[in-house]
Amino acid sequence: MNGCAKWCGRSKWCGRILALILFGSVAVAPARTQAQDKHVVSSQELSKDAARPAETRGANEVALRQLFSSQQAQQALESANIDYGKVDKAVSQLTDEDLAKLAARSRQVQDNFAAGSRAGSLSDRDLLIIIVIAVLVIALVAVLH
User: Fold this and answer.
1) pTM of the model
2) Where are the domains of the chain?
3) Tell me: the pLDDT tens digits for 20-57?
4) Secondary structure of the chain as H, E, C letters
5) How crowded is residue 55: how many other Cβ atoms within 10 Å of its Cβ?
6) Burial code of 4-40, b = ≥16 C-beta within 10 A, e = fewer?
7) pLDDT at residue 7, as a whole number
C-alpha cells in the first residue's frame, strides 16, 4: 500500500496544480480579450484617418485657388504682372505646411472681403496681401525645386 499511497498523494497534488492552472488561464483569458478589444481599430476608421490629410490638402488648395480666381485677385495679379497660370500651377506643388499657412491667410482675406461694407471691391491692403501670397506661392515652389 505504500506505493499506492504515494501515487494517490502525487495524483492529488497533480490534480490540484492542474486545477489551479486551468482556473488561472480561464480567469486571465477574458481580461486579455477585453484589453485587446480596446485597441482594435476598424478598417473604416483607418480609411478615414488615411483620407484626412488628402481632404485637408484639397480644401486648402480650393481656398487658395478661390482667392486667386476672384475678379479682384485677377486684377491685382495683373497689375503686379503675375501670371495666374504660374500661381495656379505652383499651388499644387507647395508642401502641406506651406499650403496650410497660405490657405489660412487667403481665408482671412476672403472673410474680410465678405464682411466689408464695400460690395465688390477689396481694400488696397487686401490687394497687397493677395499679391504677397501669390509671390510667396511662386517663391516657395521655386525654392523647393
Assistant:
1) 0.58
2) 1-40, 52-144
3) 665 555 555 555 555 555 557 777 777 777 778 889 99
4) CHHHHHHHHHHHHHHHHHHHHHHHHHHHHHHHHHHHHHCCCCHHHHHHHHHHHHHHHHHHHHHHHHHHHCHHHHHHHHHCCCCHHHHHHHHCCCCHHHHHHHHHHHHHHHHHHHHCCCCCCCCHHHHHHHHHHHHHHHHHHHHHC
5) 10
6) eeeeeeeeeeeeeeeeeeeeeeeeeeeeeeeeeeeee
7) 45
